[in-house]
Amino acid sequence: MSRALNVVQSDKLEEQVPHNILAQAIVDISNAAKALTKGLTRDAVVVLVAHRAALPKSTVRVVLENLESLKSWTIPK
Fold this sequence. Notes:
single chain; mainly alpha
C-alpha cells in the first residue's frame, strides 16, 4: 500500500521564518517524538507509524531516532 505525493518546490519564500521560531519548532518536534514512546513501546510506535504512512519500518525507526535527537543538534551546550 503506497500513496502518491505531489511535491512542489518553489524558490520563492514569501517570508523568512525567524531563527527563534524555527529552533522552538525543532525542540517541540523532538519532544513530541520522545513523548510518543512514553505510552507505547518503540516497536509499537514504529509499527503504527509504518502502517499509517505506508513506509518501511526501518525508515520509520531511523526517522524516530533522529527526531528524538534534534533538540541536541539545535541547541548549543
